[in-house]
């Protein structure tokens, strides 16, 4: 597994940021920065495995420009792939509506090209809504989870 990981890291189209290896059930989590080239998200399925969050709209609005209800942070898919809400079939989901999460906590995974990409919270808060369906393909920038920031 180490040799394959080194080969993968050497073929990445950008600067390597992080590689996480797990031996049980074999899982590799890779994150890197791509050059700001003119390529569409569909052409770059290996974009960094991070969430896209939008800043809250002004308090006078009822909805943000992306359709997210006021005061919520929307977690969107950073790449095209299969969305999984649990670490394994039949396991408890990473989060459920009403759960309190910490910044950096894993919310879900998206599998793309046999790689599992962690979807993490960028803010501390409460899970307000889960939009994606377990086991279904999600598109780039598709809404996955809404968080209500703490405080």
From TrEMBL:
This protein's pathway: Lipid metabolism; fatty acid biosynthesis
Stretches for region Disordered: 37-70
Biased composition (Low complexity): 37-65
Residues covered by the Lipoyl-binding domain: 72-148
Keyword terms: Biotin, Fatty acid biosynthesis, Fatty acid metabolism, Lipid biosynthesis, Lipid metabolism
SUPFAM superfamilies in the cross-refs: Single hybrid motif
Transmembrane segments: none
Function in brief: This protein is a component of the acetyl coenzyme A carboxylase complex; first, biotin carboxylase catalyzes the carboxylation of the carrier protein and then the transcarboxylase transfers the carboxyl group to form malonyl-CoA.
Protein name stated in the entry: Biotin carboxyl carrier protein of acetyl-CoA carboxylase
The organism's taxonomic lineage, starting at the top: Bacteria, Bacillati, Actinomycetota, Actinomycetes, Kitasatosporales
